[in-house]
Design a protein that fits this description.
With 600 residues, this protein is α/β, with parallel strands linked by helices. Helix content is 35%, strand content 15%. It has two domains: 9-215, Glutamine Phosphoribosylpyrophosphate, subunit 1, domain 1 (4-Layer Sandwich), CATH 3.60.20; 246-593, Rossmann fold (3-Layer(aba) Sandwich), CATH 3.40.50. Helix 18 packs antiparallel against helix 19.
Length: 600
């Protein structure tokens, strides 16, 4: 906020409350105090920080609330060389930029490089109005930031994806990551801040700021991807000799599988092609009424995974829509996933709205459920580990309300059908199912009843996470969805085309511990696939490749070679997951390895 008068606390609290939607792990404030500036950083929510800091006497305040991405020890605002920066996004090439500057890196956080570029530019005579282009020409990944230059009395606002808005009401200026809070403040005019940026006058000071570190985090919410260590040897991989379908590669341990005299399974016999898109003219006709001459016209739920990234590529470049992406972070998005989100949104110039849950709480919930599972291992209950992500479906409605955009376009892989996850619980496959996610009240109630019976075997499941789990699944399976379409109903899903497009056009980052590009930004996939393969001799890779065989995209021999590699244990990702939820790697793997095998 920038005003000729002291800021109104109620307005500041409104902006802060909305900022917490992006994350509550850390926060910071920067404002004039006496003849200098005060800079506060804390590993807590901005609403908590505001209760401890008096800012009402200031006419300029900038602050942030965010989830931690790159860097644990260092928090925002970042200050160095007379430059103060708050930044949404991730600079994915920050390490390679430092050798190009006449500045030395001092901190771990990627945001520091923005301050370094600005300071380096000022030293070389750049004017404040030139700083935006200087930063954006060097940085890859989303850069939406406010850069305060107290010695010059200037504030620079700029972004390369539009995740920054400037509003005006009377003589007061407000800026925010989204337009929604500015509308709530009844701003007379709201503009999206893009490449060239905006330069605004703020109080000047030649005195170094007073820095206050109110609270520092002792545990890392974003642990680094595990390096190969001695305990990696605990992970087992056994090539099982299982009877498999002679057409696909599903094994005899697949729930409800039957083979005919030729050895072909019932899953093949009942398969209906899913990857046969309708004419693209249909989707062009469907979205026509949603197009806007000004502003964004659709929401794209965006995990940063391979398929949602390619869906976004199609929506922007083929369908010619103007999307806002929406990301739900429940604590199991790895930094690799976040970096790919940053790459895509920056290169396509697309705003990214993040809804971050209470990550520490979500991870405690996962740990409670995993501990209960380990006491009574049951393959039908493995899905409880991903129950917390279902609020993704709830918050799409939140974003629709905040943006006033009703159309949402999904990039869901049509071949991601995993009957076995419910099958191990006793739910037979529904071969009539047309979508990845099953619906229907009776089917869902039957599933919940079978899960309840399994939960009775380990009372630890009845913990404080239960309501979070049930409410999330309600929004996924029962809540009516409107104005939504699946982009791969109209463009064929082709793995080679997708991988080539993402890797070549967007410098898309691959995982260091697997050859596949599927689910590599998901922190849960490696652990649950390890469980399934170790006990049953197959994983979701086998079901996915089997669907590709049925679609005519792979030969059976190709699929067998692929899953032999893809089912290898992913130690770095498994270690990351267990570190994130605070569970001991050796204790967990020892229990999993001791589970009686279905496969031999």
């Amino acid at each position: 906020m920038i005003s000729q008068q002291p800021v109104l606390r109620a307005e500041l609290e409104l902006l802060a409350h909305h900022a917490e939607q992006r994350g509550k792990d850390s926060s910071g404030l920067y404002f004039p105090q006496g003849n200098t500036y005060a800079l506060y950083r804390a590993a807590q929510a901005i609403s908590t920080l505001l209760k401890q800091v008096r800012v009402q006497d200031s006419g300029f305040v900038m602050g942030h609330s965010r989830l931690i991405t790159n860097g644990l020890v260092d928090n925002q605002p970042v200050y160095r060389d007379g430059v103060c920066v708050i930044h949404n996004g991730i600079v994915v090439n920050h390490e390679s930029l430092w050798p190009q500057l006449d500045k030395k890196r001092q901190q771990e956080i990627d945001t520091e490089v923005i301050a370094g570029i600005v300071a380096d530019g000022l030293d070389k005579g750049a004017a404040p109005a030139e700083l935006a282009s200087r930063v954006l020409s060097l940085c890859k990944g989303v850069v939406a930031c406010a850069v305060a230059l107290p010695k010059l009395g200037k504030l620079c606002l700029f972004s390369n994806n539009g995740s920054l808005y400037l509003g005006k009401k009377g003589d007061t200026l407000y800026f925010s990551s989204e337009s929604f809070p500015l509308r709530q403040l009844h701003c007379d005019s709201i503009e999206q801040v893009r490449q060239a940026g905006v330069v605004i006058d703020i109080p000047s000071s030649m005195v170094e700021p007073q820095v206050h570190e109110l609270e520092q985090r002792s545990n890392n919410l974003i642990p680094s991807l595990g390096l190969h260590q001695g305990d990696e040897q605990m992970l087992e991989y056994k090539p099982y000799k299982l009877r498999r379908c002679t057409r696909c590669i599903l094994p005899e341990t697949m729930p409800f599988i039957r083979f005919d005299k030729q050895g072909v399974c019932n899953y093949c016999h009942n398969y209906k092609p899913r990857n046969k898109p309708r004419p693209t003219s249909e989707i062009f006709n469907l979205v026509e009424r949603y197009r806007r001459t000004e502003g964004d016209d659709c929401i794209v739920p965006f995990s940063g995974g391979r398929d949602s990234c390619y869906g976004l590529h199609l929506i922007v470049n083929e369908l010619k829509m103007k999307p806002i992406t929406y990301t739900y972070d429940w604590g199991m998005v790895t930094d690799l996933g976040r970096r790919n989100i940053s790459r895509m949104c920056a290169q396509l110039g697309v705003e990214n709205i993040i809804v971050a849950d209470d990550i520490a709480l979500k991870r405690r919930n996962i740990a409670k459920n995993f501990s209960a599972w380990l006491k009574s291992p049951h393959l039908g209950m493995v899905s409880i580990l991903t129950a917390g992500d279902k609020h993704f479906f709830r918050h799409i409605e939140t974003i629709k309300q905040q943006t006033g955009i009703s159309l949402n376009l999904w990039g869901v892989n049509p071949l991601e059908v995993t009957h076995f996850k419910a099958g191990f619980l006793g739910v037979p496959p529904d071969f009539e199912e047309e979508r990845v996610y099953s619906h229907g009240a009776m089917k869902q109630l039957r599933y919940q009843w079978l899960r309840l019976k399994a939960m009775m075997q380990s009372p630890g499941y009845f913990n404080s996470s239960l309501w979070d789990t049930l409410s999330g699944e309600y929004y996924r399976s029962f809540n009516e969805k409107t104005d939504y379409y699946h982009i791969f109903d109209y463009w064929r899903w082709d793995e080679k085309t997708i991988d080539d497009s993402l890797l070549n056009q967007y410098d898309w980052e691959r995982a260091p511990d697997t050859s596949t590009t599927w689910r590599i930004g998901d922190g849960t996939a490696a652990i649950y696939n390890y469980i399934y393969y170790t006990v049953a001799g197959f994983s979701e890779h086998d079901t996915f490749r089997s669907n590709q065989i049925r679609e005519g995209d792979l030969t059976r021999e190709e699929a067998l070679r692929m899953v032999e590699d893809e089912n290898q244990p992913r130690y770095p990702n498994i270690k990351w997951y267990l570190d994130a939820i605070g569970m001991d790697f050796k204790d967990v793997i020892r229990v999993i390895n001791a589970i009686p095998r279905l496969a031999h």
